[in-house]
Amino acid sequence: MAETQKGLFGEVRRQEIASLVKKKSRVTVDELSEQFSVSTATIRKDLTELEQQGMLKRTHGGAISRNYANYEQTSMEKEGQNVAQKQAIARLAAQYVHSGDVIALDTGTTTFELARHIVNIPNLTVITNDLKIAGFLEQNSDIAIVLLGGMVRHNFHCTIGSSVLSALEAFYVDTLFVATNGISIVRGLSTFRIDIAEIKRKMIAVSAKVVALADSTKINNETFSAFAGIQDIHTLVTDQKADREFVREAVSLGIEVVQAEI
């Protein structure tokens, strides 16, 4: 009888976990352990079983809904999300930009926030495939801007395609500020599309230093196409809500992790 009840309680808990993931899009092992008053080992077993049932996708330290893992929000949809975190990360990341630098700004809402903070840095060159970043800097600064030409990706205000990759081969970049849809210790940095991943990978290849900008909601997330290993970046700028275990592991691998106050 006790075993039957134990199995029943476990099934109910897994159903509630599945509902919670569907509602929140992402959860961590620690928060589930606390909420259901069971060990983290039990929660990990639950998540593994739910993944096998196709109910969610496991990540390092938690789980995300399958819809969240496969759905890419447009730039407009992302602009209003985690604004305080993005602004704080951008302010902190600006310290890595110096007069005379040639930097690359990957397309993204956080890199756009960074553009706002570098307008007064003299003798700066910015390479980007982001139309909004280029337009903002053209109107608000004397920065030399290199806009990488290519096919415009509608609703994401950026250029893509082989011409972007070819153009990048002509440059040497001091520091790349790269955006990511997910970052984990095991899978590294990832995004939703193969063509976007190729551009990010090429940007990394031509850059002496790589600074990843990722708010805490991106930590331990994994999306469709990986474009860099965790050790391919030199610095991660995130916020103070970032998963502590992830931060500890990243630092142990030699990555500088700086966390912005919100």
Topology record:
Blueprint: H1 2-24, E1 26-28, H2 29-36, H3 40-52, E2 57-59, E3 62-64, H4 66-70, H5 75-79, H6 83-93, E4 102-105, H7 109-116, E5 125-128, H8 131-140, E6 144-147, E7 151-153, E8 158-160, H9 162-168, E9 173-179, E10 182-184, E11 188-191, H10 194-205, E12 207-213, E13 225-228, E14 235-239, H11 244-252, E15 256-260
Parallel strand pairs: 4-5, 4-9, 5-6, 9-12, 12-14, 14-15
Antiparallel strand pairs: 1-3, 2-3, 7-8, 10-11, 11-13
Folded structure, characterized:
The chain is an alpha/beta fold. Helix content is 42%, strand content 24%. The protein has a 7-stranded parallel sheet, with helices on both faces. Strands 1-3-2 form a 3-stranded antiparallel sheet. The longest helix is centred in the N-terminal third of the chain and has 23 residues.
The average pLDDT score comes to 89
Number of distinct helices: 11
- Determine the structural class based on helices, strands and strand pairing: alpha/beta
The unreliable regions are 1-6
| Termini Cα gap | 51 Å
Bin the strand percentage.
15-25%
Strand order of the largest sheet: 6-5-4-9-12-14-15
Work out the number of β strands.
15
Radius of gyration, taken over Cα atoms and rounded to an integer in Å:
20 Å
What general form does the structure show?
elongated
Largest sheet: 7 strands, parallel
Measured as a percent range, the helix fraction is 40-55%
Topology as a string of helices (H) and strands (E): HEHHEEHHHEHEHEEEHEEEHEEEHE
